[in-house]
Amino acid sequence: MANALDPHAAIVTTASGAGDGMLTTADGKPLARALARSQSRARRRAFLLVLPLLAFVVVTFVVPIGQMLQRSFYNDGFSANMPQLSAWFDQNPRGTEPDDAAWEALAGDLVASAEVRSIGVVGTRINYDVPGTRSLFTSTGRKVRGGIEPPYREALLEMDEDWGSARLWNAMREAATPITANFYLASLDRRRAEDGSIEQVPERQRVYVMLFMRTFWLSLLITGLTFILGFPVAHLLATLPMRKSNLLMILVLLPFWTSLLVRTTSWMVLLQQQGVINDILVWLGVIENGQRLQMIYNQTGTIIAMTHILLPFMILPLYSVMRTINPSYVRAARSLGATSWTAFRRIYFPQTLPGLGAGALLVFILAVGYYITPALVGGSSGQLISNLIAEHMTGTLNWSMAAALAALLLASVLILYWLYDRLVGIDNLKLG
Amino acid sequence: MAVPSYASPLERAWHYAYLVICGLIFFFLIAPIIVIIPLSFNAEPYFTFTDKMRSFDPEGYSLRWYDSLLTFGMVAPDGPRDAAWWADAWANAKWVKAAKNSIIIGLFSTILATVLGTLAALGLSRPEMPFRRAIMATLISPMIVPLIITATGMFFFYSNPCQLLGLFGLPTNCGRLAGTYLGVILAHATLGIPFVIITVTATLVGFDQSLNRAAASLGANPRTTFFRVTMPLILPGVISGALFAFVTSFDEVVAVLFIAGPDQQTIPRQMWNGIREQISPAILAVATLLVLFSIALLTTVELLRRRSERNRGITPH
C-alpha cells in the first residue's frame, strides 16, 4: 500500500513511527490526540445545538405517541379492579368450569368494586369484547352495594342470568391479564374462541380489514391519479422558459399554500347536488334536472378532493428532477431514429423515476393517514382508517382499540417513511 | 417549448393536445379556489350562481356573509354601528375571537418552532454531527406521522403531562395542558418544526463555511460571527420556514379538536364546526379571506426565495 510517491503515505509513516518521531502540535501535544479532541469537541457542539429541539420533540411527540400505543396491548381496567377473580383465572387453566371459589371471588370483587365506584370501568372493559355487558356490571353493582349473601352463584344468577354465560366468563378470563394481544386481533377482525384458539369474527362484524384495504386501495388510486395529472404539468413547467414556468408555477403553489379546509369546502360547494358542477351539467343538457349526480359524501368525493389536495406534492418533486434532465439525450435518441414515443419511453421517462418515486411515496404516505377531508366529504363509503381511529377516540371511547388501529397504521407509515429515506433521502424533501 | 421543425403532423397535433391537457389540469388545480370568491358575495344562501349573479345584476351580490362574520355571536348585532357595536364585535363575535386565537397561537408556536428549529438546523448542517440521519428522521417525523395519531397521543399526554414522572418516583400530578393556550402552542410548535428544519437546512446547503472561518480569523467571536455573518445569509430561509410553521398552525384543526378547550377555538376549528353543522355561505366568506391571505404569503415566500438565491450567488437559470 505504501507508495513512495504518495505524500500522505510519508506523513502516516512518520506519524505512526515510534515515540519521538511522532508529529506534535506547536505546544508539544501529539497531533493525533489533539485532532481527535478537537473533532469530538466539534461533534459535541453540533449535538448541543440540536439537543434542545430533539428533547422538545421527544417529550411532546415521541413519548406521547409511545404512551398512547401502550394502551393497545395494556389495559388493566378489569384486572386492577377485580383482583380476586383475576387470581382465580390465574390458578385455573382455560376450560375450567367456574366453581364455588370463582363465584365467591366474583361476588367479592363486585361488592368491593361497587363500593369504590370502579364497576363502570370494569364493565367498559368487558363491554369491548361482549357488547351490551356494561349495564350488566353497573346494574349488578347497584344491587350488591350493601353486600351479598351466599350461595353466590344462585344469588348472582337471580339478579341476572347473563352471569352464567360462557362467553362472558371467557371475556373476563381474557381481560384478567392486563397485557393482551386481543385489541390487535380485533383490528384484524379476529378474536379468541372459547377454547383459546384464534377465529375470525362473524362476517357481519368484519370491518377493520376491509377499512385497511380500502385505505390502501384509495391511497394507491389517488397516488396514481396525481401521477397522471402531475406528470404532464411538471413536464411542461420543466421545459418552458424560466419566466413563463415561474408564472405557471403560481397555479401549483397557490393551492399548496391555501388552507386545507378552504380547499375541502370548495369541493363541497362544487360537487353538491345543488352545486356548481351539477348546475353546469344540467344547463349544458348533459343530465336531466331530476338525475343530478351524487359526487360527494361518498368515495368519489374523497377521491376527487384528495387528488386535488395532494397533487402539488407530486408535481413539485417531479418538476425539480425534470429540470435537471438534459434535453440533448432525447434529441440524440431522435437523431438515431427513435420515434418520439420510443424516445420518451426509453430515454426521458427513466430519468424522471427519482422524482416520480419521491412524489409517489410522499403522496401515498400523506393519503394513508388522511383524516379531515374524508371526514367532511367522504360520507360513509369514503371513510378511511383515520376516521375510525377518531370514532373510537371520541365516539365509542374504546381507546385501546383506537391505539391498536393507530399502531398498525403507524407501522405501515413508518415502513414507507424508512423507504423514502433510503430511496430519496429526507434531506431532499422540498417545499415549493 | 416549441414544436421542432422536423415534427410530423401527428406530433404537432399531439403537442397541441398536450398543451390543452395541461391547461385543463391547471384549471382543475386553480378553479376550485377561485370559484368560491364570487360565490361568497352571493345575496342568497345558496352555493351556486343564481340567475341574478349570472346576469351580473348588482342585486344578486351582497356583503351580507362578510357582515355575518362580525355579527355572529355578538350580544346586540342589530344596534347602530357605533363604538359600542364595534367593541361588542371585538369582544364577542365568534369569528373575531377565533381569529384572535389563531393569531396568538400561531405567533407563539412559530417563535418556538423557529428558534429551536434554526438552532437544530445549524447543528444538523455541520459535517461532524453524530447520528445525523436518525435525528433528522425523528425531527421530520411530525410531518409524516398521520395527524390523527399525533393528536391522539397528545390528547392523553396533555391531559396529564407528568404521568411519566411516576416512573422516577416523582409526583405525577402537575395540572393539565389540554384546554390551555400553552398546550395548543406546544402542539402546533411540534407540528411546525419539520418545515423550519427543511427550509433552513436547504438554505445552509449552499452556505460557504469558509465565511465563518474568515470572520473568526478577522477576530470575531462565535456570537458576532453568527449574528453578523451567518444570520443575514440564512435569514430568508429562516423567515420562509417561520411562514411555513405559521401556516401549519393557522391551518391545523385535528390537534385543536383533540386538545383545545372552548376558549381556544381557532379559525379552522370554527370552520370545522360550520361545515359539520350548518354550512352557510359565511364559510365561503372566511375561505375567501384565507385565500387572499395565502396569496400574500405565497408572494412573500417567493420573494424571499429569490433573495436567498441572490445572496448565495445562485442565479436562476
TrEMBL record, chain A:
CDD domains per the UniProt record, alphabetical: TM_PBP2
Location of this chain's protein in the cell: Cell membrane
Pfam families for the chain: BPD_transp_1
Membrane-spanning parts: 46-66, 216-238, 245-262, 303-321, 355-377, 397-420
InterPro entries: MetI-like
Coarse class of the protein's main subcellular location: membrane
Residues annotated as domain ABC transmembrane type-1: 212-420
Keywords: Cell membrane, Membrane, Transmembrane, Transmembrane helix, Transport
Protein topology in the membrane: Multi-pass membrane protein
Family the entry assigns: Belongs to the binding-protein-dependent transport system permease family. CysTW subfamily.
Protein name: ABC transporter permease
The species this protein was found in: Paracoccus marinaquae
UniProtKB/TrEMBL annotation, chain B:
Similarity comment: family membership: Belongs to the binding-protein-dependent transport system permease family.
Domain of life: Bacteria
Protein name: ABC transporter permease
Ranges annotated as spanning the membrane: 16-41, 103-122, 134-158, 178-207, 233-259, 279-304
Pfam family, one: BPD_transp_1
Compartments where found: Cell inner membrane; Cell membrane
InterPro entries on file: MetI-like (IPR000515)
Domain ABC transmembrane type-1 as annotated: residue spans: 99-301
Keyword annotations: Cell inner membrane, Cell membrane, Membrane, Transmembrane, Transmembrane helix, Transport
Native organism: Paracoccus marinaquae
Membrane topology: Multi-pass membrane protein
